[in-house]
Amino acid sequence: MADQTTDGLLERLAEGPVICAEGYLFELERRGFLQAGAFVPEVVVEHPEKVAQLHREFVWAGSDVVEAFTYYAHREKLRLIGKEHMLERLNRDALQIAKDVARESSSLLAGDICNSNVYESGNQASADQVREMFTEQVGWAVDAGVDFIIGETFSYAEEALVALEVVREAGLPAVITLAFHQEPVTREGWSVAEAGKRLAGAGADVVGLNCIRGPRTMLPLLEELVPAVDVPVAALPVPYRTHPAEPSFQSLRDPTQPASHRPFPVALDPFTCTRNEIADFTVAARELGVSYLGVCCGAGPHHIRAMAEALGRTPPASRYTADMSKHAFLGSDSSLRQHNLAFGTKEL
């Protein structure tokens, strides 16, 4: 994709922040085109127009990157639902859908690989299996002409290193992001600073965090990561109100429900961040030095617009940013009717 008219990822990062919209799994589940649980993106094959539409909505809202929806489109996930025969078609179709949308604008095109749910620390056979899975997906992304590869949601930093090796062997820039659950360490016990250093030292072009944690509980980890590495840092939280007692969105509990009830994944609505909270996170992350920003599972286009506007941008969607000045009861425009404004002052 990168050519004379479209700078690559590293050139764009040198000029300023890059926004990458994620969250396709949850948004397409909410829209009724993906099943929660296995979370396999069969929608790519069954309803490709819905995937393309969401790509366009994220670009309209301010995303600089069109990320191919190949998250959880790996061999292990398709084995789980008995559809390994769909593996290559699903990946190639997802890449083509994203490429078509990226061509409509100056967006970057990203391939995507992710946590395999196969990797086990200390188990070489699992590492070899994961490497094969990543190699086939990266190969299809190379064929599609992606600008860079995202390797994301790794709770094992060792698995992230395997992904990084495969991407580097393909000769593409690599954005590698880790996912931290309730404990502030990876599953093999590395701190965020140690994991970031190892990834940067192994050649990652961007390192960072994505998914699992919301803005409030991701920021402390970013405070540790940014000064520990000498490469751009990424931050893509989930848009949910995690907090120190419940730092991951899987650990959130709804006090109105029985203690045994787990809101994740389809009852998280009461915990959803407002667009203002996403804007506040964006400002705070930028102040720390984060330059690759986005929102992960749970993100909607309005969250991406809030992020873009917090960076001082006016994406096309900003044409419809809220303006309450002409609201009948709460507005300030001089042409509004006074009896409605008086009612609003007293009753709303």
Describe the model.
- There is one protein chain.
- With 348 residues, this protein is of the alpha/beta class.
- The chain folds into two domains: 9-314, Alpha-Beta Barrel (TIM Barrel), CATH 3.20.20.330; 324-348, no CATH class.
- 41% of the residues lie in helices and 10% in strands.
- It contains 13 helices and eight strands.
- The chain has helices at residues 9-15, 24-30, 43-46, 48-61, 75-80, 87-103, 124-144, 157-169, 192-201, 215-225, 275-288, 301-310, 338-347; strands at 18-19, 65-67, 108-114, 148-154, 174-178, 206-210, 233-236, 292-293.
- The chain has an eight-stranded parallel beta sheet.
- Helix 9 (192-201) links the parallel strand 5 (174-178) and strand 6 (206-210).
- Helix 4 (48-61) packs parallel to helix 6 (87-103), helix 6 (87-103) crosses helix 7 (124-144) and helix 10 (215-225) runs parallel beside helix 11 (275-288).
- It is globular, with a radius of gyration of 21 Å.
- It starts with 8 loop residues before the first helix and ends with a helix.
